[in-house]
Amino acid sequence: MLLPLKSCAFSTRNDQVRRPNEVRLCERLHILWWTFDFRTSVCSVSCAGKIKRMLLAYILLLFISCGPLAEIRETVEPDVTPPVFLGLRTLNELEIELEFDETVFCDPYCIQIHPELEISGIIPSGEKIIIQVSQQVPGQEYILEATVLDAKGNSLSFMAGLYGFNPAVPLMVINEFTTRGTGNHPDVVELKILSDGDMGGVTLYQGTPGNWKDRLIFPGFPIAASEFILVHFKPEGILEEIDETEAKDISGGLDASDSAYDFWIRDGSGISGNNGVLTVYDRPGGALLDGVLYSNRTSDSDQYYRGFGTRNTMERADELAEDHGWQITEAQIRPEDGINPEGSTGTRSICRDSSSTDTDIKADWHIVPTLGYTFGTDNSDEIYQ
Predict the structure, then answer these.
(1) Architecture of the CATH domain 85-163
(2) Cβ(175)–Cβ(204) under 8 Å?
């Protein structure tokens, strides 16, 4: 007779008796086929067909049971998804942090940084790893190449850029600017330095880190409080236009100043005349140091972009407000919150008062009379009427 389905089964794997619910699918099939062979050897041929049909039905039931199939699925559907690189940041002069979407493993020999930084160790920290490196040059652009593995052995190779950590970023403000420059007086932005430091990695945007038209990442050079930097947004492209990091009197070009460090936006086409955002951050995508919103528009100027005219300007204004760089009067930043540039020209600049008052509102600013611009020196308190 057939063996009872709930009887114990003998395991050849470890010579132990186990209950049927502990027997794997292959062992169950082996028992059934053994039972069938035994039964058909003593029964009549007329019974064999019935037994076969019963046996096949039971085999089908075994195959649709959940236990063994789950194990099979685990075998045929392994984790083959590589980790995802989410970003990096410099923690200090000697450490760089990488972040992923899962825990990863990395050997120091699988990381290279150009220009070369010596890698002295790697510290795992959950979904992050910290790379210990030799001293970074403030503001120096580096390219990092690495290969990492997750717990299943899936690998990811990638490249990413970073800028050397600057522990001495000075305080500064956007102090004066023109957006309606002329042929002889193109658009300029002046930065006034408020504390001693180093400019390495400091970034000036026409826009914001998330949405910009032009940006300038400063090289490393020391600078003192009360000094000025002029950034020229529409150069002529002549050899005399030199970025100054030592002497202030070596650059030529329109509106270059011997009393300020001159820098030039290569291939720059100027600043948006009526409506825009200017910002300066301590490094690309880092912390906001100062920002300005200007606009001659109102919330009713268009129905699609809250009056800002374009999606780009609206997004830049939103990011400035989110980074607490400009005070707003309602729930969302509006064109009316900005400085109105009407009346300004290439020589009637938009500037702060002579004390460089900075409370992040449009009242901090005024337009000076014709030829009243003071790039490279303290601002004028005269107001264009």
Answers:
(1) Sandwich (2.60)
(2) no
- HSE on the CB side for 133, CA within 13 Å? 26
Q: Specify the pTM.
A: 0.76
Which tokens is 138 given?
A: 């403030």
Residues 6+ apart with CB under 8 A from 338: 292, 293, 294, 295, 317, 326, 362
Residues 201, 118: contact at Cβ < 8 Å? no
Both tokens of 384, joined, read 């264009």
Residue 137: both structure tokens together = 């040059």
Query: pLDDT tens digit string along 87-111?
Result: 999 999 999 999 999 999 999 999 9
Q: How far apart are CA 175 and CA 102, in angstroms?
A: 45
On the question of a common fold for 85-163 and 172-367, the answer reads yes
- Domain range annotation of the chain: 9-76, 85-163, 172-367
Superfamily of domain 172-367 in CATH is Lamin Tail domain (2.60.40.1260)
Confirm if 169 and 175 have CB atoms less than 8 A apart.
Answer: no
**Mean per-residue pLDDT of the chain:** 86
Q: What is the average pLDDT across 172-176?
A: 98
Q: Where are the alpha helices (DSSP H) in 77-156?
A: none
pLDDT single digits (tens) 313-370: 999 999 999 999 999 999 999 999 999 999 999 999 999 999 999 999 999 999 999 9
